[in-house]
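Allow me, if you will, to draw on your knowledge of protein folds for a short while. A protein sequence and the structure tokens that stand for its backbone fold form the material at issue. I would ask you to consider whether the tokens describe a fold that such a sequence might reasonably adopt. Thank you for your consideration; the sequence and its tokens are set out here:
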Amino acid sequence: MEPHATNRGEAGSQRRDTKSLDIVGFVLRRALPIIILGVLLFVPLAFLATKLGATYYEAEGTIRLSRVLAPILTSDESSINTFYYSYMNTQVHALRRTDVIEEALATLTPEQQENFSLKVVKRLLEVEPVHGTHLIGIKLKSSEREGLAELIEAIMACYIKGVAAEADQTNTERLGYLRTEESRLAAEFHAAQTELNTISHRLQTGTFSEEFNPFRERLKILQESYLTAMLERRAKENALNALGPGNARALESRQALARAQQEVAVARATEDQLKRDVDDLLPKAAERSAELLRGSATKTHAESVEQNLRRVQNRIFDLSLQSKSPVRVSIASHAIAPEKPSDSNIPKLLAVCFLLAFGTVAGLFFAYDALDDRIRTTEDLEHAIGVMPFRPIPHCNLKKSQAAFPFARVTLDYPESMVAVAIRALTMRLWREHTERGARAAFFTAIDAGSGTTEVLLNVACTMTQFCDKVLVLEANPHNPVMAEIVQPSGKTDRLQEHLSGKCTLDDCIITDRERQIDLLPCAPGRTPDISSANFAALMDTLKTRYDFILVDTPPVLGNDLPELLAYCADVGVVLVEGDYSFFQDVRKALDCLCRLEVPAVIAALNWGGHPRRPWITRWDKIFRGKA
């Protein structure tokens, strides 16, 4: 595919369905109107902001939060280093409690209370830790100066009062529990002492030990005597048995035997008596031992209860003294009544007005450009046709004295201008089609009526005379024929219709423009059927044999059937897209139409030349005019 040209097989390879938003172009194009309109809108808003703005007074106080608190009774310090920051954040939250603020407001005078409300104070009150210190800062801004410092002082006082009351409440609850426990332990100790006294009175001793059990000592003596008597009895029985019949020869006399029997009987009687005494004394000793054990247990229990009672009483004493100690929070600096305003919301209101003014204008322009479908750059045209378009025809930047100069005379009067350079480039592109592919006829069309097609065509024809001798400009636009108005030839202007109807010969219809050195074949308005006839194709064949190059001025592609006939008779199609006027979707439709007509080559160019039309034109305006 040749550069700047498209045909059916190549169109649409890079095309887009919608126009993309050019941010850089938007900034360059809309910066000045945004600034102007933004300033015009900002000025009244700024005046209103200065009237509605207010100045603020500020008062500040600080509260000290001690990490370490020395107790009254002991030398050990109470520290909260491990959870200091959590404790501080808790106190910051407590300072903003609604009940604290309500209580502080209630302490103000009625005149001062009228200057503050609970919602406003909660919104404007700033409570935050002071970085790098043990302090909590309390700030309050208000448009009223009276009562501001007093309110901060009241907030700090109510807060510290609440902390002290909370500590007192905690101590009161603990003391209440300890006193209840003290009463219970005292009653239990009294009962233990009463029982212990009873046992002591009954046992006649205050020492509850087996060493002081008289029955146990007597029992021991009786048991020893009983054991001695039992051993003595057994010895006597053994002696008596030795005097028995088996040893009759050893007996000296019968008196010795009787004496031994008597001794055994006495020993047995003694043993039996001692055994009865032991049996009688053993229950008494056991009972006395049980009494001693009960007394010892009662004494131990009384001592334990007394020890617990003393511990509780000591704790009550400690808490009673600790409740009089200062709390961990205290006022570090008092609030001072402000003498002059410290802040104003006017700068913020001005900033909001600035953003509102310029943001609104910029937003409207941005929305307008985002929804606007007009072609403004070569990139937009490239996205519409799918290939790189031809170089645009720029604005005709003339002097003020030359502002009304006809655009059709640019190549004649201003050959060194950028417009003339762009037109010469377009002419060379057509001449290249002529030399390389034998193109003899090119039709010029546009997307919209009034896009300067005739003016551009006349400038191209004037430049084409530098490459070939015979150049013809054929006007085939009966809807809006303006060539006669621009060139102002002598004689009739309906030469094309006259020749197609057979009323005059071709030589009689041709008009020569001596200044541009080209031939003209103009037409009259309103007689479309004559141009649409088959005679026009024969006329084009005849003209191709007589002229080196033919330039045909045709109506817009959309909404007309003439371009279809002219497309079959021409070799090249030049489509002019008016900058900031032609719509993206219209360009796509026109390109699709030319592709269906199988035009051998199509050249699309963005036309900025001539006098620009209203930049705020919309599609509805086009529909209203019947041009869309």
Remarks:
- Confidence is low (pLDDT under 50) at residues 6-13, 246-251, 616-620, 623-628.
